[in-house]
Amino acid sequence: MSRFDFSHPPFDTLTPSEQQTLEKHADIQFFAEEECLLGPSDKVDALYVVLKGSVREMAGDEVITLYRERDTFDARAMVAGQTPHRFVVHEEALLYTLPRDVVMALTEQNPRFGAYFYASVSEKFGSMAQRAGNRELQTLLTATVRDVGSRTPVFVDGSTSVREAARVMKDKKVKSVLVRHEGKLGIFTTTDFRDIVLNEVPGSTPLTTLCRFELLTVDVGDFLFNALLIMTRRNIRRLVVTDNGDAIGILSQVDILSYFSNHSHLIAQRLERADTLDELAEIAGQITRLVQILFSHGVKAPQLGRLVQTLNARLFSRTWQLLAPVDVQDNSCLLVMGSEGRGEQILKTDQDNALILRNGFNHPELPAICAAFSAALARFGYPPCQGQIMVNNAAWRLTESQLQQQIHQWVYQPDGAALMNLAIYVDAEAVAGDASLLERSHAYLLQQLRDDASFFSRFARAIEQFDTPLGLFSHLLTKERNGKAMLDLKKGGIFPLVHGVRSLSLEHGISQCNTFDRLHALAEAGHLDKELAIEIAESLSFLLTLKLSQGLQQLSLGKLPGNQIEPDQLSTLERDLLKDALAVVKKFRTQLRHHFRLGSF
Fold first, then answer.
1. Cα gap 538→115, rounded to integer Å
2. Which residues pair with 426 in a beta bridge?
3. Quick one: which of 144, 183, 224, 525 has the most CB atoms within 10 Å?
4. Is 225 helix (H, G, I), strand (E, B) or coil?
């Protein structure tokens, strides 16, 4: 059995033979407390991995990083052959020492391993993203019937005729019905109609003489593979799902295959069929479970954001259809804004939505309808916006003319609140109703902004609201919170990247809302260096992925997801990539300051 743990980055990229080579040359050494391992004048001839204890990295008297169990140091120094810092044992430590020549040879023969040491920023992020897919099979093996979300069964009496059963199945858009008769439960499916036609059974025949009362069932908590195994063995296409012995759903073979091949397809189908808010509430919970599953499969945050945006749009649209009369739907446009509009909100956070009404249209029940919509979203797990940017607030329920007046005020009377509201609105996407109402409003906004350099400077200045938490010598700057050293990912990294790209896009009339689409459009049009655009995209992707990972951990503990992370709990690789990402944030902010002349304000 191996004495070296190859399960964590970057060692998890090594092949079995490469692992043997590394383990053969690895040595374990003991170091006493306060012993200096490396100093600025020392030659770095090894890579260190902490087995026990801790080591602090210091620039002068300042502690830059504390390395704990399984952390690796110092890859940059090993490649360069020297370090500007001191590495001092904080608590007596056992360390693996990996000879420099062995490690460097492995970096040359294994590109993924080598990416950890001296690849470009974008290559490092790409290499990191490839690792997560290794857990896919384990997740699929542990999926349960509950994870799929079976279809709500349709019940009929045993006296129901074949003809009436056909009518019910057509109206309810189902391929089977459960038949109740004298305390027994049977099933009648579309397949049974084949024998009815062949045997010329009259349409008035009651189902009791035709359906099967020996049901094959699966418990809602059973593993999904067990359900698939039963179907395969018995050559059937569907099972009755039970909970404590009661029939609660129908699970079809298509549902299972859809789950394993494309989980989102099943959720989308259920959204289209949902007829009540209760059903939508259940489906909303499945979206979060879908995120957990796909994230564990290695799907990156940007792609997850797009998928969740699509599903959320269908959820919001279906909710609106259930609550709003047809004339309201036809004469309005329901918008989502902010991160939801950009397709970058993965876990459920604050609602940001609005309603544009056609000029001259009014409905006496509109306030009550909008209040019900906001309440429904809160029930689905989307908390109310603290700033009340929701359709239940009359300030965000405007006619087309009123919205244009509001846009004019945001542009020509741009105080802090106005610029914040405009930034949220700029990311708006239509999810229900007449999308042309939003299109005309966007066109009006761009018309107001032609050649107004001073406005764009004021708009972009929001990137200066928060400092980038990266100090000298790539030291992560944290703030103590509840006794822990914490860092705000959104304020320190995500927001300046998103708003900087948003500002450039608004200036150049880029129509896309998604930040990654905006980056591509800006680079293709020559408004942003292509290499920098790639670095920004990879950095933002990593920050969003890190935020999602932390958010899922918080949800598993019964807490609301937030933006704070504890850098000391990250792996060495994650901390290094966080530093690289924040360095890109600093670089981009410097370019934006020059481009928008922010020093003049």
1. 14
2. none
3. 224
4. helix
Q: Which two tokens stand for residue 257?
A: 């295959």
Give me 78's structure tokens: 């090993």
Q: Give the pLDDT score at 133.
A: 42
H helices of 262-345, where? 263-273, 277-296, 301-323, 326-330, 338-342
Instruction: Report the chain's C-alpha Rg in angstroms.
Output: 29
- Which portions of the chain are predicted below pLDDT 70? 1-2, 118-142, 232-233, 257-266, 297, 600-601
- Check: CB of residue 487 under 8 Å from CB of residue 470: no
345-379, pLDDT tens digit by residue? 999 888 999 999 999 999 999 999 999 999 999 99
Say how far apart CA 324 and CA 321 lie, in whole Å: 6
Question: What is the predicted pLDDT for the residue at 128?
Answer: 54
Spatial CB neighbours of 574, under 8 Å, sequence gap ≥ 6: 546
Amino acid at 307: L
Q: In what order do the strands lie in the sheet with 184-189?
A: 155-157, 176-181, 184-189
Question: What whole-number distance in Å separates Cα of residue 536 and Cα of residue 298?
Answer: 20
Identity (one letter) of the amino acid at 19? Answer: Q
Output b/e per residue, 294-324; b: 16+ Cβ within 10 A.
bbbbebbbbebbbbbbebbbbbbbbbbebbb
What residue type is 323 in one-letter code? L
Q: Which of 492, 91, 401, 142 is nearest to 289 (CA)?
A: 142
Does residue 587 contact residue 532 with C-beta atoms inside 8 Å? yes
DSSP state of 57: E
- Report the C-alpha gap between 459 and 507 in whole angstroms: 10
